[in-house]
Amino acid sequence: MTGTSSLKDLLTRNLRQSGIYIAFVFIIALFAILTDGVLLSPGNITNIVLQYSYILILAIGMVIVIIGGHIDLSVGSVAALTGAISAVLVIQQGMPWWVGMLAAIATGLLVGAWQGFWVAYVGIPAFIVTLAGMLIFRGLTLQVLGNISLSPFPQEYQQIASGFLNGLLGGQGFDAFTLIIAAIAVVGYAVNSYRTRRRQIEYKQPVESMPLFVAKLLVVAAIVMAFAYQLSRSRGLPIVLILLAFLILTYSAVTKRSVFGRHVYAIGGNLSAAQLSGVKVKKVNFWIFVNMGFLASVAGIVYSSRSNGAQPAAGGLFELDAIAAAFIGGAAVTGGVGTVVGAMVGGLIMGVMSNGMQLMGIDQSIQAVVRGLVLLLAVAFDVYNKRRASGAR
């Protein structure tokens, strides 16, 4: 059936994703009130971007792993190992900062290939392989660092996670360059959304009515520009935000429009059907973990840059934060469902909650309880939706 859908129909058809966005807005509003507006202050918004960027990078790779029906428990240890290798080369041996980056990325790719081999070609469940990897790579981190911390990195390396682009176009009390980049992003989003809507109509898929479509674009534009304005009033456009935006756009396109992305969804949704359809399951699974290793190395570089050094205990619980971001953002426990954008929203929900509770002075133990309950409720909601859908059929 073609035509447009009402708001009620749209929310009913896509309750889970709509619910995530509504929950995100509600959580921001709640903590903005509870912190007397400090949460949305220019400096704090900048800090949220800097503090949680590496978790969001990990969440991009983790949601692809989960869509494929797997899990990766080793990403925190891999991030620690890649940061340690970079620190040894740059800080201890005095090599250029970019050599440390390349070595970290190469290490991440090798780790991903190692784990992908055991999962894809030997057939060991990813849970076991990455659990072993968590121990192996944590031990290697201790070996590489000699059980000591290394710091500081040169200024160029620190700029990866702590640098800003500002003052390029001036501005009275704000950075004009940041606002222009945000405006370009909004226009690009609007054009892409309009093209997607036209394709859906051509394929006789239901879409929201034009007024609802325009309203959605206006809301997104308002949020993005307000966010950019607050950044522009602080220190300008964070370099790590540009990196994160590039990764989000790239992997959104990969998951939605590439053959690899469709195969990942097929494997996670129905492995037997994917095999019968000619999908090269082993090859796809192998590259899922190579990609996760790559993104873990990028997160390791960002984290070591942010902390201006490498520590033996770095990356602790990063894997749990990344997994939580993917599940809260709409990924299904059984695989085959999830989006990169959803994982980003899930990660931001966790980040805003943590930051808000820190501003309120809530004890770390209570923060852990709240975050655990949010994850449990998100997965319970997914299970409830599946049961309701099965009952309807």
UniProtKB/TrEMBL annotation:
Keyword Nucleus: no
Main subcellular localisation: membrane
CC per GO annotation: plasma membrane
Localization, UniProt: Cell membrane
Pfam family, one: BPD_transp_2
Keywords: Cell inner membrane, Cell membrane, Membrane, Sugar transport, Transmembrane, Transmembrane helix, Transport
GO terms of molecular function: transmembrane transporter activity
UniProt topology in membrane: Multi-pass membrane protein
Transmembrane regions: 20-40, 52-71, 83-111, 118-137, 173-191, 212-231, 237-254, 284-303, 323-353
Signal peptide (UniProt feature, chain positions): none
Function: Part of the binding-protein-dependent transport system for D-xylose. Probably responsible for the translocation of the substrate across the membrane.
Matching NCBIfam families: GguB
Protein name: Xylose transport system permease protein XylH
Organism: Georgenia muralis
